[in-house]
């Protein structure tokens, strides 16, 4: 049987590993200004 987990401890665990060599989001160097205005 497992012991109960403290919520503060569980939320404090870093679940995300940053992969700087192979990002899944790539920003364009020259974005479309009109499309950008729609988002803002």
Low-confidence spans: none
Number of helices: 2
Along the chain, the helix and strand elements come as: HH
Percent in strands? under 5%
Average pLDDT figure: 83
Shape: elongated
Oligomer state equals single chain
How does this structure look, described?
It comes from Salmonella enterica subsp. enterica serovar Inverness str. R8-3668. This is Ferredoxin-like protein FixX. The protein is mainly alpha-helical and 40 residues long. The protein has one domain (7-38). It has helices at residues 7-11, 33-39. The model has no long low-confidence stretch (mean pLDDT 83).
Describe what is shown at a glance.
This protein has 40 residues and is mainly alpha-helical.
Write the layout of secondary structure elements.
Elements (H helix, E strand, L loop, with lengths): L6 H5 L21 H7 L1
Structural key phrases:
mainly alpha, 2 helices
């Amino acid at each position: 049987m497992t012991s109960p987990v403290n919520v503060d401890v569980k939320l404090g665990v870093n679940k995300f590993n940053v992969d700087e060599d192979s990002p899944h989001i790539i920003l364009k160097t020259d974005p479309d200004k009109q499309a950008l205005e729609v988002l803002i």
